[in-house]
Amino acid sequence: MGYVATKGGTQAVLNAEQLVEYFRVQGESEPISIKQIQDQMRLAVDRAMGEGALYAPELAALALKQSEGDALEASFLLRAYRTTIPRLEYSLPVEGIRMRPLRRISATFKDIPGGQLLGPTRDYQIRLLNTLLMHESSESTRQIVAQIEEQVRAQLEQGEEQQSLSVFPKVIVSMREQGILAEPPVMERAEADAEPYDVTRKALIFPAPRSARLQVLAQGDVGSLVTFAYSSVRGYGDVHPTLGELRFGYLPIEVAHPLTGEAVVIGEMLATECEMVSRVYANEEEAQELEQQGQQAIFSAENLPRFGLGYGFCFGHSEVKAMSMAMLDRVLSAAKESGVHGETGPAANEEFVLLHIDGIEASGFTAHYKLPHYVTFQADISVLQRAQEHQSIKLTEAAELREHFLTHGHEKGAEDGK
């Protein structure tokens, strides 16, 4: 694709940038502080961090302010900033069971170990505009906080039962103990033992290992993830999942001590984790492989149905994204299992999905059409003109041939009549 340099437009570009700032601050309202965005627009901050692939709430709030609330632009700013930061260390793997949950629910069982914890959610609210927020003040918000804190103190004074569990058991562990949760495919088990694929340092290859797939999904655009996942469950696929467990809370961050090598907790981060399960059917090849390894095949011919697992994880509080990610993980895993369901529908095409869910890349490629394409378009015009000339000649020749046929054909017919 050819481009030409734009000459003599430097001042125009500088003026355009200046106008952006003018339109951002031209109103009479007071400037929004970074702290306000971070505290009161937490879901937008979480989305920017997830799609920008950088856990930095303050920087995400700054990016949202700079981009005037444009989620994709804010994510773009964060990802660009991330490339300027040196990578000092890798964190150690941590299991979701260690999360300090603020919310934890399951749709598979009513009674789960540790109980359901609704936490902060809008799932049960009526979708009506709250016009009272138009008159919200610092005093009114302080009253709300004080009221809730007073309710908590009253409950503690009344000696109501408190949650004594520091660790909430995993629902999928219980399912695995019951023998109804399938083990990962043989190929994915082999990938799990290998070093995780780092998509920030190596180009994505296909078929992609599951570690690469999960990284791409985690930083994907939430709208794209929802669309692909929805297409599969709506009928353009055959994976119909159930929410095994959804957690939102604080997850510890650990690194290896540089001297002792022991795990050291250096902080926490807010995260959402999701595990979806769906019906799958036993793979005969996998069962034969287990038998050859001397392991007992869990699912016999009389008991083929079982549940497969899909996993989702993202920064902050983003439940729909984590659920969509888990659905797609399940769909793509099922599509790779030879001889089982899940090989139909656009969401089952790994290359198609992973190459089209990055909102930053998609928006950047789309926006690049605003750049000068003078050379390529002039070439298109030249090709179009030659095609028009060629078509015009063909039409002229066809018209002359028709006229000739009509004239001479009429004369020949008259002679035959004599």
What does this structure look like?
It is a single chain. The protein is of the alpha+beta class. The protein has 2 domains: 10-82, no CATH class; 96-130 and 166-366, no CATH class. 47% of the residues lie in helices and 12% in strands. The chain is built from 15 helices and 4 strands.
In summary, what is this structure?
The chain is α+β, with helices and mostly antiparallel strands and 418 residues long. Helices cover 47% and strands 12% of the residues.
Residue stretches low in confidence (pLDDT < 50, at least 5 long) are 295-303
According to DSSP, the number of beta strands is: 4
Provide mean pLDDT, rounded.
84
Major sheet size, sense and barrel closure: 4 strands, antiparallel
Beginning-to-end CA distance, first to last residue: 67 Å
Count of helical regions: 15
